[in-house]
Amino acid sequence: MRLIDSHCHLTDAAFDADRGEVVARAARAGLEAVIVVADSVPESERCLALAGQGGGAGLRLAPTAGIHPHRASGFDDASAGALERLLANPLVVAVGETGLDYHYDRSPRERQREVFAWHLEQAARRGKPVIVHSREADEDTARLIADAPAGLAGVLHSFSAERAVLEAALARGFHVSWSGMITFRNWAQHWAVEAVPDERLLVETDAPYLAPVPHRGKRNEPAFVAATVTRLAELRATTSERMAELTSANARRLFGLGSL
Description:
The chain is of the alpha/beta class and 260 residues long. The protein has a single domain, classed as Metal-dependent hydrolases (TIM Barrel), CATH 3.20.20.140. The chain has 9 helices and 8 strands. Strands 1-2-3-4-5-6-7-8 form an 8-stranded parallel β-sheet. Strand 1, helix 1 and strand 2 form a beta-alpha-beta unit. Helix 8 packs across helix 9 (240-255). The radius of gyration is 17 Å and the shape is globular. The model has no long low-confidence stretch (mean pLDDT 97).
């Protein structure tokens, strides 16, 4: 199977000791691309630098640029200018990850909303998809997506929200990405998997977090995305091969990856 991991924090310190080996395992596992996701300005710069090194063995590393809601309180004019320069780079395929997180509240909620809206505007203006994180912020996430500028494309990453968010996102033509959570025994959002059209499905690892069964409890990595593909195929009553083909085609189209 040819696979694309649509969301991975490959520049995270958890990979510092063996990042090259992780990338090599991903290539051997059949991955053709990994979307290397940023959560701050320095991390955005590292994602771009890593992508410039290439994955080797036919594996593309595609970077994003953006600021996670946990870091929204530190967003200022300098941050905005740095991100605008990064987003102008044609190698950068998406805006984010951004969004709202009211579970931890590590940044004031009003500031989270302001920074999220800034990212949405950048994504619409630049024609690059936005990667949305939403946790316990359903009403505001749905409202900001619905009110965002025309021309917006995006993805709800590691979906775990409620119907209002899913409906608002699908109404704007968003994709929905599924992580290793769908393999967990206590996962209970089958209704959401059923609601998303084939052409909007994506898979991800969110590595180094959320390792799927049978790797749960370990550090996650891109090679493990195959387990999520297999589970998503079961939930959609199709084959793993078909689901890999479908989600990879969707990722290529959303992130402008071409034919690879």
